[in-house]
Amino acid sequence: MKIICIGRNYRDHISEMNSPVPEEPLFFLKPETALIRAGLPFFIPDFSSEIHHEVELVIRICKIGKHIQPRFAHTYFREIGVGIDFTARDLQRECIQKGLPWEKAKAFDGSAPVSRMKALSGLNKRDAIAFSLKKNGETVQQSTSSEMIHSFDQLIAHVSRYVTLKIGDLLFTGTPAGVGKVEAGDRLEAYLEEEKMLQVDIR
Ligand code: MG
Q1: Cα-to-centroid distance, 140 and ligand 1 (Å)
Q2: Range of the domain at 122
Q3: How far apart are CA 203 and CA 84, in angstroms?
Q4: What is the distance in A from the centroid of ligand 1 to the CA of 174?
Q5: What CATH number does the domain containing 192 carry?
Q6: Which among 16, 25, 187, 195 is most buried, taking Cβ atoms within 10 Å?
Q7: Which of 14-18, 37-41, 59-63, 127-131 has the highest mean pLDDT?
């Protein structure tokens, strides 16, 4: 099982980071050891002093596929949840400056809490799925899948040109604006539509 993450897929987040808009989807991987199951705390690692939360819609791959055509991509996922792409922003900045890969900043243990999954068929419209993140009770990130630059189907088509997708793989689909630093004692709560799906206490 692998975790594939999309970067720079919401214009408001690209603006807040002063990043260029990518011409094609940008993706990177996190290993299985990055996963934290819902309900478990996140421990701030000693190598970073600037861990940011990035709430994202996460889809679960339900069928093995390679070189998937966009028109068939919707048959490769049936479930959706929310996750947090924890990012060591200080290390990421350094990696970007030096032209190095992002793994140190993105792939560390515990960097990917993921909620339980919900059937997409139970949601209104998959092209306008609302999600949000509260930090200590206050909404800090909020968007819908309609704001994505590249749709779920386009992301699946793009990634599967390079990497075979397997059952159980998770695809993080990018974060909207409002990312920010977490401190020990913070409580993060992620919502899919109106439903609280994930709570992560920061230690
Ligand atoms: Mg992200």
Answers
A1: 15
A2: 3-201
A3: 15
A4: 5
A5: 3.90.850.10
A6: 25
A7: 59-63
